[in-house]
Design brief:
- It contains 14 helices and 14 strands.
- Helix 12 packs parallel to helix 13.
- Helix 8 links the parallel strand 8 and strand 9.
- It is globular.
- Strands 1-2-3-4-5-6-7-8-9-10-11-12-13-14 form a 14-stranded parallel β-sheet.
- The longest helix is centred in the C-terminal third of the chain and has 17 residues.
- It has a domain of 113 residues.
- The mean pLDDT is 88.
- Helix content is 34%, strand content 17%.
- With 391 residues, the protein is of the alpha/beta class.
Length: 391
């Protein structure tokens, strides 16, 4: 099938902009396809996004030949994703190095070292090759990566601005350059000390911060306390925090006088008084508030909005009822800034009444539709993904 698709696309004169290579079965690309690729250089000439998943499913000859053709003809890649496995033949690593070195405008490099069989500490020169992109590379995304001396080359990247660490070694926070304006840390258990150390050094440069934690731990509470007690990130315009529990330490939000976009996740119960207190300290610069994944704030939306002085333009919620709809309308009338409300269960509200046979469910849907139409007299109600902001 892959050989046939390649043949159809090439012979039709197509020019690829995005290519993802992945397979669950063993593949060998036919010599005929390589002949066509070599004769049709424009096929890969405009490629901008290349994702290389588990290449061990390709024969070594097929993988190496295809990668070398890409290195020769695809020089305008700006996003390169690579899944790293120790079982790759050395020729595959060398071919990938050739791709990296041949690029003219590589902006984002993402590597996933999620090899379940062995801990990867040797990257066979693949990371070192990034030194050839030190003037263009702006973003590094590390997934399940252990530290290696090869990563020291990141210090030479003159325009590196975005660092994303997903279940990877926190040592990477120590080797990043001073121009980082976006930091993302995703982990099952947050280790606060290296993050705080990074923020103490470079926090004033940060404009966007995203931290997600898989489970409640002392690290996240320690981090919140540090953010509250120390004025570490005064220039944040975007904040995404996914923690297990709501904490009084979130009062540090009041110190972020440039914050425009705020996404908050937590699941524990909070009192009406805590909601009121939290609403009152939201920065006046805030325009966007995503509380889809905070069930307690969703259920107490009326208390939140009735005590909110912030001129919000976009609010994202999980669902609405009469009470929440009334609170949203009253907020819109009072602040005159609300333009959009994003609803995550929007599809459940939209034109499915004719398909529902249960009378009670049908009546409930008709009721929600009526509420939605009333809200749309004041602001637009849209699927949450339409207005979601995630850097």
């Amino acid at each position: 099938m892959i050989n046939l698709l390649f043949k159809i696309f090439i012979e039709s004169g197509a020019t690829l902009h995005k290519l993802e290579l992945s397979s669950s079965e063993y593949i060998q690309i036919k010599p005929e396809i390589f002949y066509l690729l070599q004769r049709n250089e424009k096929f890969f000439s405009q490629l901008q996004n290349l994702s290389l998943y588990d290449l061990s499913k390709f024969s070594i000859e097929s993988a190496v030949n295809l990668l070398m053709i890409l290195a020769k003809n695809a020089r305008k890649i700006n996003t390169l994703y690579f899944e790293f496995y120790t079982k790759y033949d050395s020729q595959v690593f060398q071919a990938l190095i050739s791709i990296i070195k041949s690029q003219e405008q590589l902006r984002l490099f993402k590597i996933n070292s999620g090899d379940n069989e062995v801990e990867i500490k040797e990257y066979h020169g693949v990371i070192s090759a990034l030194t050839s992109q030190k003037q263009t590379l702006q973003e590094i995304y590390l997934v399940y990566c252990e530290y290696s001396v090869e990563f020291e080359v990141l210090m030479n990247c003159e325009n590196l601005e975005i660092l994303r660490i997903d279940n990877s070694d926190y040592i990477f926070l120590n080797i990043s350059g001073y121009k980082i304006n976006t930091l993302e840390v995703n982990d099952q258990i947050i280790m606060a000390s290296p993050i705080i150390s990074f923020l103490e050094k470079f926090g004033t440069l940060l404009q966007r911060l995203k931290i997600t934690c898989g489970e409640v731990c002392e690290g996240e509470l320690y981090l919140l306390k540090a953010l509250t007690s120390k004025f570490l990130c005064p220039n944040l315009t975007y904040l995404y925090m996914c923690f297990g529990e709501f904490s009084d330490s979130l009062e540090f939000i009041s110190k972020l006088q440039k914050l425009q976009y705020f996404t908050l996740w937590f699941e524990n119960n909070i009192s009406e008084e805590e909601v009121k207190k939290f609403a009152e300290v939201l920065p006046l610069t805030l325009q966007y508030f995503d509380l889809i994944h905070t069930p307690q704030l969703n259920s107490k939306l009326d208390i939140l909005l009735n005590n909110c002085h912030t001129p919000l333009k976009r609010i994202l919620i999980k669902s609405f009822d009469e009470t929440r709809a009334k609170a949203l309308i009253e907020f819109c009338i009072r602040k005159r800034t609300l333009n959009y409300v994003g609803v995550s269960n929007y599809s459940e509200l939209n034109d499915k009444k004719k398909m529902v046979k249960n009378d009670n469910i049908k009546k409930e849907m008709e009721k929600n539709d009526k509420i939605k139409k009333e809200m749309e007299k004041y602001f637009k109600v849209v699927p949450s993904e339409y207005i979601e902001v995630d850097y």
